[in-house]
Structures are given as C-alpha cells and as structure tokens.
Amino acid sequence: MDIDERRKVVSRYLRRCVTYSDASIARKVKREEDPEEIARWKAFREFTAYSATEIESGALDPWLTDEEGDPPPPPKIGDGSYKIDIDALGFRERRGWLASLLMPKPVVLVGTKSKSGVENLAPMSSISIVSNHPPLLALSLSENREGRPRDTLVNLQEGGVGSEASIFVLNADLESASAVNKTVKIVPREKSEWDFLPDSPPNYESALCAIRCKVVDFYKLPEDAVSTLVIFRVEEIEAPEGVDSTSLPVKLFQIGFDQLGPGPNEADWRSKIDYA
C-alpha cells in the first residue's frame, strides 16, 4: 500500500469517528446529559478532527511509513524466556509472582496429555491460588450438558497424583482471544486442540507466561455438583526475558459469560466467545 492509500485509509477512519462524535454529542445535548461527559466528547471530537487534518496534510507521513509509531509487541515466552524454580523463591517473591499472574482471575489455557498421548489444550477461568506456601492452585473442572467430563479432567485423573499440567497465562490481545475461541469448542477426545493453533505442544509460545504444575489431589464437590476440584502444586514458572512479577503487562480476562477483554472497563475492547 503506497503512502497515498495509507493516508486515505487512516483519514477515512478518523473522519468517521468525527461524524460519530457529532451525532453522539447532539444526542447527549438533546437529552440534557452530564455537561462534563459532553465536554469530554467535544474534546475527543476536536482532537480527532485535528488528527485527520494532520494525516491529510502529510505531516504524519513518517508515522505511516515506518515502525516508529507502532506500540511494542507484548512479551511472549516464545521470544526468549527464563525459568523460575518456585521452591527457590522467598515467600514474598513467590506470592508476588502467583498474584501477578493469577489475580484477578484471568482466562488461561491449560495443557494436559491423555494416556494415549493426545495433547489437550483448553481455556479456563476457574483457577485460584489457595496457598502460597506451599504454592498450591485449585481448578474446578465440570461436565458438559451431555454429562461428558472435560478432557482436561479425564487426562489428569488418568495420570493421577503427580500428573502434569501447563497453565498458559495470556496477553490481552486479539491473538490470545482468537486462541481461546479456537480451543473452547468441544472436539472428539482423540483430536487435539493444538491442531487449530500455529504453535506445537507442549509449549504455547505466544503465552505471556507458563506455570508448570503437578496434581496433588482431587476433590469431588458436594451437593450433587458435577465438578471436581483439582489441586496443583506449582513447580516452575516460565517468563519472557526482561519481565518480572512487577512488570507484567495486562492479561486476558473473561468479562461475563461470553466476552473477552483486558478488564471490566466498558471502554476497553471486547471479543465474543463462540461456544458453538
């Protein structure tokens, strides 16, 4: 795409934003909504209109022709990583890593392997820290509407205590949201969800971090619940080079039942979860 086409694309988008802002401001004024909110919309409208003018004049051509204006890509373990022996950490360091990765509860991908060697990968949002010393996590795994237990649970129960799992914490980006949608669907037990992704098992290299765990116990939930609580002991954390527990970027979260995004702010982007 040459520079003229790039200008046209960006300018058209910005001009549409201005048109949308004008209509929104008119509606808010007519409804006598909060003056401060209207003032923010007017400021946005003026800034966007000015940006469109700058694009159209060619003043921002350098930003359209090189990577100077691109935000840095999120860190990924596939771009280079280091491993952290969880038992070698002090209490505060261990607590800091687990809290940064799993609080508030993000959407993660959990990797397991069946007894026959099929690699499974499934999105989960029901994982919690239940102990810092020793480092223990709990994951609730249920059955589907047809009474079929999740492959993740079956794989772990086949392996019993000591069976391994990898918990991949995801960056808050559309690539991660796409990975969730590709692995959330129910597939035959003999088929691997890894087939839908560019990465190969056992490591999801696009992940922000990986938590390596082993099962220490299973608890069937009471009151006729169809879920089993699996308790993991954290053995190791794999993190991107240059990242520590105090510098982790925003993680991917499940918002409500069928939305993914970087957090609860309604202004943030959303990606719909397609369970079908």
Helical percent range?
25-40%
Number of domains: 2
| Residues in β-strands, percent | 15-25%
Computed Rg:
23 Å
Mean pLDDT: 91
According to DSSP, the number of beta strands is: 11
Characterization of the model:
By secondary structure, the protein is α+β, with helices and mostly antiparallel strands. It folds into two domains: 3-65; 77-272, Electron Transport, Fmn-binding Protein, Chain A (Pnp Oxidase, Chain A, Roll). Helix content is 32%, strand content 24%. The protein contains six helices and eleven strands. It has helices spanning 3-30, 35-57, 61-65, 91-102, 151-159, 174-183, and strands spanning 81-85, 108-113, 119-124, 127-131, 136-141, 164-169, 209-220, 228-240, 253-255, 259-261, 271-272. Strands 1, 2, 3, 4, 5, 6, 7 and 8 form an eight-stranded antiparallel sheet that branches. Strands 9-10-11 form a three-stranded antiparallel sheet, covered by helices on one side. Helix 1 (3-30) packs antiparallel against helix 2.
